[in-house]
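Help! Submission page says 'invalid entity' but I think these are all valid:
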Amino acid sequence: MLALRDLSVTFRGYPVLRNLSFDLASGETLGLVGESGSGKSMTALALMGLLPPGFEAKGSIRLRGTELLGLPDKALCRLRGRAMAMIFQEPMTALNPVLTVGAQIAEGLVLHGLMDPRAAMAEAIRLMERVGLPDPARRARSYPHELSGGQRQRAMIAMAISCRPAVLIADEPTSALDVSLQVEILALLREIRAETGMAMIFISHDLSVISAMADRALVLYGGLAMESGPVRPVIDRPAHPYTQGLIAAIPRGTAHTHRLSPIRGQVPDLASLPPGCPFAGRCTLGDARCAGTPPPLRSGLTQIHCHHAEPVPA
Amino acid sequence: MALFLIKRLVGLVLTLFLAALVIFLVLEILPGDPAAMMMGVSATPETVAALQAELGLDRPAATRFLDWLAGIFTGHLGLSYTYRVPVAGLIAERLVVTVPLSLMALALAVTAGVTFGTLAAANAHRRADMIVMVLTQLGLAIPNFWFGILLILVFAIGWGWFPAGGFPGWAADPLLAFRALLLPAIALALPQAASLARITRSTMLETLSEDYIRTARAKGLSRGQTIRRHALRNALIPVLTILGLQFSFLLAGTIVLENVFALPGLGRLLIQAIGGHDLILIKSLVLFYVATAILVNAMVDLAYGLADPRLRVGRA
């Protein structure tokens, strides 16, 4: 349904995303994993056609056969919110402070011509009830500052699913919330996905969240897909040194007996990324060839971009 | 909410009282006896004293102050020294020029300022933005009395579209009266529109970088729809505060422009009153200007709560 081919994003000539390709089928969830600055959010914004000024996307993004890159904004406006919707990370700032929550949820339904304003408001209240907002009829008349962080994120979800999009992009939807709320929101997203059959792109820096939500995982680093494949082998039997490092760095819960094992070094900034593998400077297997030549794609149980590591055979 | 309004009201009355007191005291301290001024240099001390008694100037200052305060509520503000008619009547007949003039200028300034400021922000760092920035720089730099004279030269004397000055009165010819006020209103609005455009541009740019703007775009709203439905109201909240402050400058501007355009408004009355040492008239006129500025700012405070739900008091 959604197909990315060689999607590259540059910012003033610096690569932000390099030749990203993946497919997404209806009802499937792809987990995008990576550290800050790995290009996860830029992938989401490129999909929505909402890259900030100065960013440029090349390659191909096809949604149900329609090429999105190069589509005029008017045509994209008809797709945004309708065919694909997005949930943002910061529920505190992602809602308009001067409009009621109900009006903001109903807006998309009216905009896309699905309902008249009165019916849209009734539907907004129904959606608010569905996402677990208490006393939805009253909450619909509330302003965002009158809601808690968790309630705002529920309202955000109601807004995103209002027009029954085919693809829902969730960019770190739980990262700004308490752990107990995280679990509730993830459960809610799973329920809604099961009810509507929509495809989901779930972005997180947290591998445990990805393993709970995704069918397939794609690990990004420095704008390049390090490893991708079905979520279990990516997490249980990672082949790429970066994925292995990420998994080794997860705290085990027995903090006193185990030392944390971080990946050594720092995430390089955009301007100093090597032309080859972006992980070259921090990798245990890295050598001169790694930094100079882009790593080849190797396929096995998972797909990896690496000069040295061998994928686990399928 | 009720408590909030009562607090505001008490504050308002206190401010107005203090303003009245300061105005009274300053004019009291000022040298120059109005009775002596009116009688001229050849007057004898007896005739001056007689006139002082007639004008009530021989009574203690505190009594005169309290009388004046009471007069503000009853409308008995005394007789003008120079015109020999009640001050309240003089002010009332001039209000029909100054109030419409200020409101027209305000409407022009807000419309032009918000429109061009939004246009500039929507096209930030492109040609339309540059043009607006250069024009607003000019608008801020040009003194409005000079711009008023320029307008008279071009549109009144040159092309004859508007009267060059004077005011026919609303009753005689409402359309002509409106046209007589249009050029001075434009001149008055120019610097206000320029600074409002610049402020709107910067608050709009800030608003457009907010997360909720991206949310609105992700919903499928076009850039224009996003600006109109989501950005404008947020961007105008800070503009509203500035507007209240600017209104004081606008009022001060009417004093100058009424003289440039020979309009029989409050500003001209004030200049004439100052020229004639008509202290009793000056006192009430200045208080009127101060009260208007204070009331407009109080209204802006209330409007602030309407525009921004986060500032509403007493809501759950």
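Support: the input was valid. A stray whitespace character was the problem, and the output above is from the cleaned input. The mean pLDDT of chain B is 89.
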